[in-house]
Design goal:
The chain has 14 helices and 2 strands, in the order αααααααααααααββα. It is mainly α. The longest helix has about 30 residues.
Length: about 270
Amino acid sequence: MVGYNKVVTWGFLGIALVITLFPIYWMLATSLTPYSAMFNPVPTLIPPSVSVEHYVDLFRNTPFLTFTKNSLIVSTASMLLSVFISTLAAYAITRMRLRGRHALATLVMATYLLPQSMLFIPMYILVSSLKLANTLLGLILTYPTFLVPYGTWMLMSYFKTIPREIEEAALIDGCSRWETLWRIIAPLAAPGISVVAIFSFTLAWDEFLYALVVTTSPSVQTLPVGIAGFIVGDIFLWGRIMSASVLTAMPMVLLYTVVQRWVVYGMTAGSVKG
């Protein structure tokens, strides 16, 4: 019976693994399939020949490097801004005796749950009124609207796991609230802050709707919007789309491969106390 359960378990895991990895394999295989073989009447799982012509076309004939530069600038800046604000907000809600802080914590969660489709029109009106439409700064200031609630909620759980006695000892020794936060609490919460930073960067890197609404010029568009521009009417430039998708996903794959242990530790350490 035990052997049967193992077979069933491994069978489900194997099916789930295939379902998860097949789109990635298909994207990579399509990006390496030459145009002459891409539209064969009978599709094949394995490309009949391998070519890098789509990658050459991507770098020579499209502003892909500009899209990449814009994504790096917007993701990094919005991540740093969001982590800074989230740390201050989470510390204030969990440590300071503010009136209505529980209601504020609930409001933060409710804000995080609001779908972007409800907010993108008022957000565009606000950005336009500030003369920031079609600029990278407009995106950098827009992304914290959904990154800060997420980061604040995550860090609130993590800050609650840090004993208050450590903070009180620092205050008795003469540290101010500001010094206590950045010299005592922040280093102890470094795994949680790192997780929030990584997830914030990922969310900003993949964000599409706000970037589509706020930016219109290719010189300020990010990767998701730039890749969507490879669809012209009813013509899908699959070679460009798949090669750009592979290159766009690669930094995230490398990032999570390197920091996966920290991510798991940071998430589980902050989950033991809600």
